[in-house]
Amino acid sequence: MLKTAEPIANQKITSKFSINNALKKSETEEEKLIDKIKEELPSNHFTETDLQNAWQIFVEELQEKDIIIYNAINSFKFQKKGEDIVEITYSSDSAKSEFEKVRSDFFNHFMHKVNHFNIVIKYKNDVSLKKEIMTKRKIFDKFAEINPVLRDLDDLFKFDFN
User: Which among 2, 33, 35, 112 is least surrounded, fewest beta carbons within 10 Å?
Assistant: First the structure.
């Protein structure tokens, strides 16, 4: 009696149509199509001033429309790094997620305005852009570090900084 080296049930027979192969092919075809379309679109020159002016106008309009998103993204810094690269410096990941909601609105308008459709966006996190809200208590603590006698007065008179 002859024995096989592998079980017969484990043999894989490829069918004429494979879902995995079809998915892989369609993804690569879409990428090629997008790259080809991107190459055909115009790429006119734009300046740093064009970018800054468009951002300021957009932020002013956003302040009237949606104050929450405005407060999150008004400290963003835009800088042109190359002919096709715009670097966006943001303060926090939550602010970046708020920006993602309006990113397409800004860049669609900007790309049509300057007739440059191959802009690549690079993000950079900078914690120093965060704006700290100064309360009366924080101001008092800051002065108390300079002059410790203020702490004694606070203990004695029970100041209310609310």
Answer: 2
- If one counts the domains in the chain, the total is 2
Residues 60 and 100 in one domain: yes
DSSP assignment of 48-90 equals: HHHHHHHHHHHHHHHHHH-HHHHHHHTT-EEEE-SSSEEEEEE
**Could you tell me the residue range of the domain that residue 141 belongs to?**
132-162
pLDDT of residue 122: 93
Specify whether 83 is located in the same domain as 115.
yes
Nearest CA to 76 among 66, 89, 94, 57? 89
**Which range among 51-60, 86-95, 129-138 shows the weakest confidence by mean pLDDT?**
129-138
Output the six-digit token pair for 9: 């049930």
In this structure, is residue 123 part of a structural domain?
Answer: yes
Q: Are residues 79 and 56 in the same domain?
A: yes
Q: pTM for the whole thing? A: 0.58
138's tokens: 């924080």
Q: Give the bridge partners for 54, in sequence order.
A: none
Summary mean pLDDT of the chain? 82
Type of residue numbered 92 = S
Stretch 12-21: mean pLDDT: 69
- The two tokens of residue 29 are 């075809």
